[in-house]
Amino acid sequence: MFFVFAGELRKRPYVAGAAWWTCNDYQSRYYGSNANGYRPWGLLGPDRSARPAYHVYQQEMAPLTVEKTGFQPGGRGVHGLR
């Protein structure tokens, strides 16, 4: 399902990002909840294990990795970061 959503986002250059409805499943007494009492809408299950959509969401929303290769301490609170 998220694959379709991510594809639709890519079609719209004016969209800078998106937010998932809920990070993890949550307990609910709402009619129609699963037998275990959790609403299964999160990127993480009730035990905080990642669902497949989590990894897709992470890849789509963080396409850039920043890596620090060095640090140069400087004077007057100005430091260099490579």
TrEMBL record:
For this protein, the record's InterPro entries field holds:
GH (IPR017853)
Can you say what this protein is called?
Beta-galactosidase
What is the superkingdom listed in this entry's lineage? Bacteria
